[in-house]
Amino acid sequence: MTEQSTQPRPTLEAVAARAGVSRATVSRVVNGGEGVREPLVERVRRAVEELGYVPNQAARSLVTRRHDAVAVVIAEPEARVFADPFFALQLRGISKELTAHDSQLVLLLTEGRDDHARVARYLAGGHVDGALVFSLHLDDPLPGLIHGVPTVYGGRPGWSDGSHGVVYVDCDNRGGAREAVRYLVGLGRERVAHITGALDQTSAVDRLDGFRDVMVDADPRLIVESDFTLGGGEHAMRELLDRCPDVDAVFAANDLTAVGAMRVLREHGRRVPEDVAVIGFDDMLPFTEQADPPLTTVRQDIEEMGRLMARLLLRGLDRSGSAAAGVPSSVVLPTTLVRRVSA
């Protein structure tokens, strides 16, 4: 049997003795209190590091009224979240920012209506300092259930024009869609179609509006509603080919939809891009580079959006920071067309 160490964990008293200060002084320093002179702060921090002391989180929370934890709420079922690379990229950005600020990520998913009440109860229970909420649908009751919890949304909320203190991070969905469709038109494509995302989400509506900005007189049959999924893209492309066999370009609302559409085109003997040019939206690497053929798409910096969501929330929570005087402003990031083989 391997002998295990039974050495006790360092205490506040041990840190105080090592630093040559009182226990109360150590408590104020490690728990974020004020009123301690800088030389003493440095002595305490050095002693903490030398002894490997870990502050008691419960005691720290009583002093700071902070839990150093943030809830990330994704308003989608588990199967959708773990099948779509978009969510992994956004979570990566959020996690990196929270880790840099020594804060924990608590992931909450909403599988059905009952989960909304469960999530709302958890947030109201004082377990976290704030919430990051994304992938909301227009009929989602969750925003109305979140009370008294600092919140930043991923994507422009459908119920708000950005006023009344609602803070969100989004990309220029409409402008990115316009750029993609103009590019297809510039290639000489005459029957440009659009496979939408789920139209109960603002990103899908904005991308459809961007398509219509360019294709003002588009045949209504060239617009097929879908749901941002691979299977949805396959189904929509089959419907589109039935409606308009002469389609020569497709702007898909996201990369998964675009890849689904390209699979169906290949099944029907249509070459991409020779017969039908295809453009997606998101640029979810390495997914887009590994598509067959590599996908031309509109890039939004998904990981950076996650970082910014966390940063805005933490900035609002930091009462000692210069940005804490007012509500942080929402951010809309630019998009870029990334040209590969599919168009």
| Average pLDDT taken over every residue | 86
Please provide the ordered H/E string of secondary-structure elements.
Answer: HHHHEHHEHEHEEHEHEHEHEEHEE
How many extended strands? 12
Main β-sheet: number of strands, strand sense, barrel status? 6 strands, parallel
Radius of gyration: 25 Å
| Structural class computed from helices and strand pairing | alpha/beta
Task: Tally the helices.
Answer: 13
Which range best describes the helical content: under 10%, 10-25%, 25-40%, 40-55%, 55-70% or over 70%?
40-55%
How much strand content do the residues show?
15-25%
Strand order of the largest sheet: 2-1-3-4-5-11
Regarding quaternary structure, what we see is single chain
Task: Please summarize what this structure is.
The protein is of the alpha/beta class and 343 residues long. The chain is built from 13 helices and 12 strands.
Q: What would your notes on this structure say?
A:
The chain is of the alpha/beta class. 43% of the residues lie in helices and 15% in strands. It contains 13 helices and twelve strands. The strands form two sheets. A six-stranded parallel β-sheet has the order 2-1-3-4-5-11, sandwiched between helices. Strands 7-6-8-9-10-12 form a six-stranded mixed β-sheet, sandwiched between helices. Helix 8 links the parallel strand 3 (130-134) and strand 4. Helix 1 crosses helix 2, helix 2 packs across helix 3 and helix 11 (230-243) crosses helix 12 (255-267). The chain is elongated and about 80 Å long. The N and C termini lie far apart (64 Å). The model is unreliable at 1-5 and 320-325 (pLDDT under 50).
